[in-house]
Amino acid sequence: MLQQLGSLIQSHQQKYFHYLIFHHRHCTSKGENKNTTKLA
């Protein structure tokens, strides 16, 4: 059961990480450098 919970958390972190990368690329492709520098 503990292993199941660990894998669930890991998959959730991967989804969140991919979302951050996608959102960052989307902002940079738009040319909104002000927002990216605030986050960085």
Give the low-confidence spans: none
Please compute the radius of gyration using only Cα atoms.
15 Å
The main pleated sheet reads as: none
Q: If you average the pLDDT, what whole number results?
A: 75
Distance between the termini: 37 Å
Order of H and E elements: HH
Beta-strand proportion? under 5%
| Secondary-structure content class | mainly alpha
Bin the helical content.
over 70%
Cα shape: rod-shaped
Number of helices: 2
Per DSSP E runs of 2 or more residues, the count of β-strands stands at 0
Structure description:
There is one protein chain. The N and C termini lie far apart (37 Å). The chain is mostly helical and 40 residues long. The model has no long low-confidence stretch (mean pLDDT 75). Helix content is 90%, strand content 0%. It is rod-shaped.
Helices and strands, with pairings:
Layout: H1 2-30, H2 33-39
Q: Any key phrases for this structure?
A:
single chain, 40 residues, mainly alpha, 90% helix, 0% strand, rod-shaped
In brief, what are we looking at here?
This protein is mainly α and 40 residues long.
